[in-house]
């Protein structure tokens, strides 16, 4: 599924479209260059899910946990990991296979441990305000 977002005010609509597309899937990976808007889009997703906590990038902690309407959302940022061992050390399996929503930034750094099923969100910068989104279902 492809869509374009022309401003930040349209991100919540894009988040709704992602949930309509994803069905029952719980793991989402986000790809895009630095500054493409991965964390900003994740903030919109969390807002749509009813998260009231401050949502920010877990760059240094690797994972943040947010409460949302009776469920939990895990937000990962693997940008700064030096090796896959760090993902093992945080107990990634307990998060990825918890049945809760997992939002994963920089998934290419942990590609070998990603679940078999996930939704891929690709974000491309078209202009300072405009982004192109591509959502795809990946089943290995």
Automatic annotation (TrEMBL):
<keyword id="KW-0067">ATP-binding</keyword>
<comment type="similarity">
    <text>Belongs to the TsaE family.</text>
</comment>
<dbReference type="InterPro" id="IPR027417">
    <property type="entry name" value="P-loop_NTPase"/>
</dbReference>
<dbReference type="InterPro" id="IPR003442">
    <property type="entry name" value="T6A_TsaE"/>
</dbReference>
<dbReference type="GO" id="GO:0046872">
    <property type="term" value="F:metal ion binding"/>
</dbReference>
<protein>
    <recommendedName>
        <fullName>tRNA threonylcarbamoyladenosine biosynthesis protein TsaE</fullName>
    </recommendedName>
</protein>
<keyword id="KW-0479">Metal-binding</keyword>
<keyword id="KW-0460">Magnesium</keyword>
<keyword id="KW-0547">Nucleotide-binding</keyword>
<dbReference type="GO" id="GO:0002949">
    <property type="term" value="P:tRNA threonylcarbamoyladenosine modification"/>
</dbReference>
<keyword id="KW-0819">tRNA processing</keyword>
<dbReference type="GO" id="GO:0005524">
    <property type="term" value="F:ATP binding"/>
</dbReference>
<dbReference type="GO" id="GO:0005737">
    <property type="term" value="C:cytoplasm"/>
</dbReference>
<dbReference type="Pfam" id="PF02367">
    <property type="entry name" value="TsaE"/>
</dbReference>
<keyword id="KW-0963">Cytoplasm</keyword>
